[in-house]
Sequence to fold (362 residues):
Amino acid sequence: MSAIELPPEPRVLVVAMRRLGDVLLTTPLIHSVKRAFPAASIDALVFAGTEGILSGNPDLAGIIAVPERPSLRCSLALLRRVGRRYDLALSTQTGDRPTALACFAGRRSAGPLEAEKLSATIKRLALSRSYVTERGRHRIVDLLRLAELLGIPACNEIVCPQGKVRPGLLPAHPYAIVHAAPKYTYKRWTIEGWRRASGALRQRGLATLVIGAKTDRAYLDEVWQGCDVTRLDGVLDWPEISALIGAARVYVGPDTAVTHLAAATGAPTVALYGPTDPRIWGPWPVGGLERAWDAAGTIQHRGNVWLVQNPQPCLPCQLEGCARRLDSHSRCLDELSAGQVAVAIDQALAARQAAQGQLGNH
Fold:
């Protein structure tokens, strides 16, 4: 594909109207555009509540946050704000709304299509450049096809929120970060599992710092009642979370945006996965995936990430738990043993120690 021609100082819009983790996974594409067009002024269009994951991103000039379910007045205001204001607009999704916004906002536009959808023909005509998304590819690999579509080099590094931890919050002694509260119940591990994991971390000489959102507080009260942990849930902003995880000896968490962030910081990351297919949504290690995640395994290791699963015959089902709803349990996670997670923690800690030893020898 020939390189797209843009003005010397182009304005670019990247439409990423999805959940927190999805927005974070668009940053390699944004970085690719910025590297190819250093003078570009790039804005991101995201849902309100997800913009924090882009805090301090040096590739972005601005962030436009809109309600997930906007009023007519809000929608019209957005159209007035972005209409033909950009030299290039990229949709990172196949949906009607993000594609339409990219076409409306950019004098040139590009985005993915779903081949089996009847609307794909219309979208192909509306977009300046398009490609058919492939199911089964990792989300980042698929998104970086937009870079290929633009004829620019792809950069596969996630850009983390930039900032520092407030004084007094960063411990002076070695610590682990544990995030026990995914947004949806079907991605949860057991309370007993988290308690045993925190005990294993203490036995290895690590303080346990636990994080989460304010809305998770009631659940985390139940999880951590009587446990020797330091509670930071609802205290940190995204740049602080990023910095705190990056300095940890190990991070342990489920399938969440925070776990994707942990992998991107370079911290040894132990990720607990249930129904989600890691081939598409597995954590992205620093330096990228030299080998794709397998659909299922006991403990898979790629780069600075250890992905832990309970590989039952139905895994990964890509469904919302065994009852097919957001508040469902997931048998694969309910029966995941704390001993298996402890093995992954030991492997992650050993790899970190070995890497530090190699640095010390140079």
Observations:
- The chain has two domains: 11-150, 175-360.
